[in-house]
Structure formats: C-alpha cells, structure tokens
Amino acid sequence: MKEIIDYQTIKSVSGPLILVEGVKGVKYEELVEIILQNNETRRGKVLEINEDKALVQVFEGTSGIDPEKTKVRFLARGIKLGVGPDMLGRVFTGLGIPRDGYPDIVAEKYVDINGLPINPYSRNYPNEFIQTGISAIDGLNTLVRGQKLPIFSGSGLPHNKLAAQIARQAKVLGKEESFAVVFGTMGLTFEESEYFIQNFEETGALEKTVLFLNLADDPAIERIATPRVALTAAEYLAFEKDMHVLVILTDMTNYCEALREISAARKEIPGRRGYPGYLYTDLSTIYERSGRIKGKKGSITLIPILSMPEDDKTHPIPDLTGYITEGQIILSRILHKKNVSPPIDVLPSLSRLKDKGIGKGKTREDHADLFNQLFAAYARGKEAQELAVILGDAALTDIDKLYVKFAENFEERYISQDNYEDRDIEGTLDLGWELLTILPIQEMKRVREAYLKKYYLPLKKEK
Amino acid sequence: MKEKHIAKKGEIVKVSGPLVVAKEMSGSKMYDVVRVGNPGLIGEIIEMKGELAAIQVYEDTAGIGPKEPVVPTYKPLSVELGPGLIEAIFDGIQRPLSVIAKETGAFIERGINVASLNREKKWDFNPLKKQGDKVEEGDVLGTVRETPLLIHKIMVPFGVSGTIANIEKGTFTIEQPIAVIKNDKGEKIEIKMYHTWPVRKPRPYKQKLAPNEVLSTGQRVIDTFFPIAKGGTACVPGPFGSGKTVIQHQLAKWADAEVIVYIGCGERGNEMTDVLIEFPELKDPRTGKPLMQRTTLIANTSNMPVAAREASVYTGITIGEYFRDMGYSVAVMADSTSRWAEAMREISGRMEEMPGEEGYPAYLSTRIAEFYERAGKVICLGSEKRKGTLSVIGAVSPPGGDLSDPVVQATLRVVKVFWSLEDKLAFKRHFPAISWLNSYSLYKESLEKSIAKAISHQYVEDSKFAMRLLQEEAELEEIVRLVGIDALSPNERLIMEGARSIREDFLHQNAFHEIDTFTSLEKQSIMLSIVLHYYKRAVEALKKGVELNKLIDMPIREKIARLKFIEEDKDLSSIHSVKKEIDAAFDSLEQEEK
C-alpha cells in the first residue's frame, strides 16, 4: 500500500481539468479526491500522467477551486461501486451515491466501474425472443435477450413513453424468471425522470429497479461515469444474482457532449463535429457490456436512448452508436405528426439479432417470411405514396394503388397502438397477414408457398 | 549486439490511454515488443526518440504509472505458425481466447501470458521427404492432418536449406523436433512443426502472378456482376445496417477457398459468437464437412484494447500468408478496416503527430496500401513451385455512409473490386444491398475466360445483357419520377419489368434461407438465362401484338420468382424445365392473339 499524501500543488485549472505537479506514484485512471478550501470533497480521475505531473478530470466540475488552497489526494484505486442486493428499489446519483435520503447500501463487494471486456469466446448468442407487446418491434424489429438496441429519437418525440412501455411490458414467453430494471439518466430533466419513476411505481416495478440519476442540473462531467456505474450494477445483478436485467440509458447524447467537453479541455485533435476521435471506442466499452454469458443464467439487455441533433442520423453520435449496437429503433417526426403512435419508422429501423430470435418454437414458423414481405410491401407503398404526391393519384398503376392502400392501413393499424395495449405475438403476426390480403397473391414473392396456403389464402378467401 | 542479451529495463515516464512513454530504452528497436509496468502488459514500440520510446500497449493501462519498469524482449511482434491455427479463436495479438476463458473466466483480465498454439496436443506427422534429400526453404517436409478439411503442410522455414540429416514419423507436439537439416556450412538445424514470424513483415514468395481464376462466393450479385479473383482484393463500404457483416459472413461461409481467416476488428462481440456457434454446424457445399474446419478467427471486439485492434489485421493476414505458402487458396476477411484505421488515429493523436485528413495520420493510405498489397497469387517458395492465392476482402464503415471518408478513399485506390452497399436498398430489404449501379470489379474482363470455360460463354453474355437492362431501368426511373409511368412506351415498360425481375428474382438473395443462401455458378447461370428468357420472349410477343398487361400478369412469373428456392443437389433439370414452360406460356399467348 502506498502512503496517501495530500498534494497542494495544483498548477492550473482549465474547464473540468486540473493539473497537479510534483506527485509521486500516481497511476493512470486512479481515483482522486479534491478537497476544497471549504472542506467540500469532489471526485475525479487521472486522465494522463507525465513524470510528476498528473492531469485530473473533476467529475463535479471545477468551479470554486482555488489552486492555492485546494488539496488533492490520490486514492491508489480506480473508481469503484459498492454493489449488493439492497441496490434494488434505491435511487442513486450518477456516481452511485444514495440520493433518496436513505443510508448507504450494505455492499457485498466493490467493483471497478470500467468493468472488463467480455471474452467473445464466453459469450452466449442472444436468441430468446422478448415480447414487448408492440407490433412494430415484435413483428418487424424483434428484440432478444442480451441485445443492445438503441432508440434513435429527436427532441419532442415520445421516446420516453416508448421506453416506459417496453420496460412495463417486456417479457419472455412461458417463463417466470427474476428480472430487474437498471435505469441510468444523463442530463435528464426532473420532469422526465419523474415520469419514469412514476411509471415504475404504478406497475409495482420500482422495487425491482435501480436508478442512477444524473439530472440536467447535476455536474456534466459526472455523466461520464453514470452509464458505467449503471452497467456495473447491471453486471452484478445479471451475472452474479442470475437476474435478467433491462438497462435503459438516457440520454446518450448528453453523455457524448460531456466527453467532448473533456476532450476540448485537453486540447485534443477533434474528430467529426468536435467529438473526440475515440468516441467509437469509448461508446463500445459501454454498449458491449450487454449480452449473455455461457454458464450464467442472467442477461443484460440494453436500450440506450439518444436524441439525434436535428433528427440527423449521420450525426456522429447516432452514427457511431449504430455501428456498435445490434440495430436501432428510429422514431420519425413525420409519423408523429400524422398521429401514428408509437411513431416507429420501421424501414430504417432494424434488429440485427431478430433472425435468431424468431421462427418455429420461438415466435412462429412464418415470422421471417412474413416480415420480409411486410417490409417489401410497405417500402413499395411508401414509394408509390411519394410518387402520388408529385404526380397525383392518376399516375399510379392499379397495383401501386393497392400498395398505397396497404401502406396507409399498415401505419394506422399495425404500427399504431395504444401506449397501454399489450399485443401478443400471435396477434401481431395475424394482423400482418390480414393486412397483406390487400395485395394479390402474385405479389407475395418473399413468402414460402406452404405459409401462403396456411396463413394467407384462408384470410384472402374470407374477403 | 552485446546488449541484446542483457534485458536492460526501462522506466515509464508518461501514461496516456494506450500510449506509454518510457525512458532508458536504448538498445530496443522500432516495433520491438516490450512488457510494460508491474503487471507486464504487452506493448510494442512505435517511436524511438533518443532513449525515449513511445509504446502502444495492447491491454488496458489503468493503474499503470511512472517509475514502473518496462522490460524489452528485443523481438518484433510475431505470430506462431503451425498446427493448431485452424478452428481456433485468437485475440488481436494471437492469444487463444478459449484458453484465456479457462484461465480468467468470462471476462478478459490483464497481463495474461499464454502460448498461442497448444503445446501439449500431439499431431500425427507424416514425412514426405527422407534422409539425405536435398531441401530448400519452402519445401514440404511432411504433412499433418489438422482437420478433416485441411492438410497442414510442414515447410522448411525461410532461410534454411541443405540436406535432411534426420526426419521422424509419428505423433509429436509442436515443440518436438521432427527433422534435422544440415546446411552448407555443416550446421545442424532442428526443425519443429511451428515457427514464428513478425506480423508486420510480409512472408516471402518466389514470384507474384496476376490473379486469373474466379473466387466463387455463391452470392449471385457478386459472382455474376462483380466477381473477385482468387488472390484479388475487394472492399465493402456501407453505412451501418446495410449488411456489411452479413456479406462478410456469407463470404466466409461460401467462398470457394481452402482456408478462411476471419478478422473481427473492433466490431461486435456477438458477431464473433455467432460465427463460433454457426460455423461448426454449417456444411461446406463442396465437401460436406463443417465449415469451421477450414476457418481461423481473430476476434478483437470493439471493447477490447484499441492497440491490439491495430495489430489484429496484421496477425490475420500473416496467418493467411502462411497457408498461402502451402499452396492453398486463402481468403482473409477484415471486418472492419475502419476500426483499424481509427485505432491508428487514436494512437497517432496521443503521440501528438501532425494529423492528416479527419485527424487520421498522414501515413494512413500507405498503411492501407501495404496491407492490401499482401494479397495476391504467387508461386510459393520451394522447389515444387506450388501456386497459392491470398484474397483480401475488407469491410469499411464510413461515418454516415459517406464515401468521401479518407479510409474509403485510400482503400478504393488500391482494391480492385468495390461492392457499394446502399442503405436505400437495405431499407427496402433488398439484400445483399450491393448497388449494381455503383459497384465495380476490375477483374471482370480478366476473369471472363475462366468463367466462360467453367460455365458457358452464354453466361458471360447474359451478365452483360442483364447489366445493360439495369442501367436502362435507372434512366427510365428518372423519367417516371418526373412525368409518371404513363409517359413510357410499352417497350420501355417492358424494360422496367425485365429489370425488376432481375432485381427481385435474381439479385435479391436471402442469407438466412437454407437454400437461397448459396447458389453455385451453374445454377446462377441457369437462373439468369431463364429470367432473361422471359424478357426476350416478352419483347417478341409485344412486337406480335400481345398486350403489355397480359405479359406482365403472366402466372409463369411466379415460378421464375421461386427459382432461387429450388434445391441444387436435387436436380437442376427441374430448373431447366421452367424455360420450356415459359415457351409454352408465350406460345399460347401469341396463339390467342392470332
């Protein structure tokens, strides 16, 4: 053990960073305590160490730090989170300190919040279908256990409503297992976080929930730690307490902005739009912590929410997120204005893991063919709709008119559903077939003949 | 040379992420491997300034600080080449992940030191040479059946030649000598079944040749329109969700290569798990054996240390070259080279180098070119003049799908095949979402001969005809977008229909359908000829006065749409019969008209 020394050698303060000189034995990523002249203690971590100079990032911000009077203490360990079964039902700050007025939890152990990478050899492939009761997700962009599926949204869109509905309704069919929700917020407003808490309370899920709240008025740099703290709690619950954990992180855009702030303060060469070049790597160390592990019962399913600046999908945050996550659910402002709710834009949305989570014994044999056909038909319907806008309905061929009708019905009846409607998968699939009967059989190119006979023709005859 | 044997320790002065600077490092060379800090993390020297060395560390550097030691090894970063490579999964610096899992559990801890190849496993060595034979570098001494799909040839290492003083037969571990060679100077050299090779140095060969055989992939849009040659290079750029990884997986599964090296470079962990689970179950369509038996996996997922990601592509291609040297056709898939470039950028940024475009280092394009140039068709070392090929297919993930990205541009300057993925196609669920308008293959002409010989000349012609039709469709689409479909003549409408049929009935291919996932060249040629046959007959029928709508609504077209689901090994004749049915349908239509 190294001797813990208080240094009073702050050389400079700039943005969220302080530079401390003359230090000995300081390690990279070490946890730091900063004790202000009024005895307020803040926390930070070592970002760079060069001989006897340590660059420290202060989570709670640097306002009020007097370089001459402030003491810095290096704690000879990384940032750790105390974890234990008591966490469930509690509310913490973004750094894992209780904020609900109750005492600290009895920690079973302390875990480094950075975690360790899961060995790809030890992973178990996510293939258990999660029924969210939302057709646009279950039918077309199926979520599976252990997946990381973000919601790409924009300001003013109902992503919170959707996330709450998923948290409320998500279940694996035919199984009663212990589950938990870990909820991490970064820069969310009080109102928004209250909405979630109330929602969890209403459904009685609060006692199965761990909340890590960094609100809009909390220090921005603390947000760097929040998702890692939340995932550390989730890893403990999933891989040591055998729980199926749903992690919701919102809003990742605020996280990335905090990261950019630090990068700018360090005067690093900026990448696109001023975000640091290592944003991809940094985000992946968060997102990749979801998954299933061979020989462990629990799992971590991750739903990060991010608001796309100006609804631009090519903005670095959604762009890099999409490269790491296993698909994305995209909300559309146009659908929202057309009163389609939830306004899920199914064409650019995608669940990469759906193929392994659907089919016989999981959902139903015809699921894959059906969604391929629905996608193709909806895409063509949308195209025809656009054409009709430019040239008028008269320019459409007869078959294109049917496609337009299909697309309209599809948005109105399939994508749209009430926030409290829990559609089971059978209902979702049958609805899909019913809508397809709008189109003639020659158009069913993506479907195997056997399924046409079994599901499509009987409905068609009824008509 | 003297100091080489004294492991003089250096001392850390600076730690910044994966970059560590150490002093008192004189004696070490560029790209030497060192052990960093108290936990002994693996690192590589990437810059020397006087006695200061900048080191990129392949493991997480948290908890490392100044004054900790740096131990030089005086050796460059190398891989072990020998039996045990196939069916294995390694990390970016060739540590076997299965062994790491046994040692530290499901999470990868730091400072693990494990041998790349299994030292205990015994292999059955079968000599092909005998005592007294004269051998030169690259000659095959004997073979080991590594998997039912692959015979591993044990070659005389580079730089060794002479007469065989002794050669064994039987079962050995890779540490036991299997032969002794006496060189011209009379020195006796023990040969083991494995040797090491520095990853950044291309393995030597006798002569490079121009690639001239097609590497069939079973993917219709690729083989028919944008084929890659054995020994060729290709890149697949595309935005996320457009199916890069699915294409890479499809190629790894179905490409007509004897050895596959799949490099998961900075991508998703679950994708590697998918390969690990799926490949042992999939059967090679040519031999019926599990595909895993010809595959080596390098997995350095995005959450694993960034510097090892930089090394992973070199580790992969060196293993690929080693199998090429045995005279095999090898395909290396790198998914994704953008992550490799980003790793370079991160390290370069931390070294405070002057950045080039988008913050990437100025040497980005040189590194990319050097990497792809390691592909090729060669005459291998050795007296038998074996021919081996190494094809490289790199995925590129440009931000926002923007092809002006420096990594895409640098890659396009060196590769010969460009499969452009478009998200527009992906949204329509047209997979593989390879754009037929933007993609190209510079091998197309040079491969025509070999394709015509293997399949038929007609297939080559059909491919050109179909491409022309697709081009015309694109032009007509512009008109439709402006003034509506009514502005088109019946002939033009027919072109649109013909092209649609090519797109939907031929190009669209479902990777997750048990039959559609792979189509042999032969079936491809028949499918295409049938699709075109319908179009050609329809043009004629239109001339004879048959109404356009009747042609479009012909029920036989449903059969054409289902050609892709006809099983290959059953019999291709049932596909042939569709052609006759088309003729019959048209004949009766034309008859009615009369």
Description:
The complex is a heterodimer of chains A (463) and B (594). In chain A, strand 2 and strand 3 form a beta hairpin. With 463 residues, chain A is of the alpha/beta class. Chain A is 33% helix and 21% strand. The longest helix of chain A is centred in the last third of the chain and has 25 residues. In chain A, helix 6 crosses helix 7, helix 11 packs antiparallel against helix 12 and helix 12 crosses helix 13. In chain A, the strands form 4 sheets. In chain A, strands 9, 11, 14, 15, 16, 17, 18, 19, 20 and 21 form a 10-stranded mixed sheet that branches. A 7-stranded antiparallel sheet of chain A has the order 1-7-4-5-6-3-2, with no helix packed on it. Chain A has a two-stranded antiparallel ribbon with strand order 8-10. Chain A has 3 domains: 69 residues, Beta Barrel (Elongation Factor Tu (Ef-tu), domain 3); 278 residues, Rossmann fold; 96 residues, no CATH class. Chain A is elongated, with a radius of gyration of 25 Å. Chain A has 13 helices and 21 strands. With 594 residues, chain B is of the alpha+beta class. Chain B folds into 4 domains: 74 residues, Elongation Factor Tu (Ef-tu), domain 3 (Beta Barrel); 71 residues, RNA polymerase II/Efflux pump adaptor protein, barrel-sandwich hybrid domain (OB fold (Dihydrolipoamide Acetyltransferase, E2P)); 236 residues, 3-Layer(aba) Sandwich (Rossmann fold), CATH 3.40.50; 137 residues, Bovine Mitochondrial F1-atpase, Atp Synthase Beta Chain, Chain D, domain 3 (Bovine Mitochondrial F1-ATPase, ATP Synthase Beta Chain, Chain D, domain3, Orthogonal Bundle), CATH 1.10.1140.10. Chain B is built from 16 helices and 28 strands. In chain B, strands 8, 18, 21, 22, 23, 24, 25, 26, 27 and 28 form a 10-stranded mixed sheet that branches. In chain B, strand 11 and strand 12 form a beta hairpin. The longest helix of chain B has 27 residues. Chain B is globular, with a radius of gyration of 28 Å. Chains A and B meet through strand 5, strand 11, helix 6, helix 7 and helix 10 of A and strand 1, helix 1, helix 4, helix 6 and helix 9 of B. Strand 5 of chain A pairs antiparallel with strand 1 of chain B, so a sheet runs across the interface.
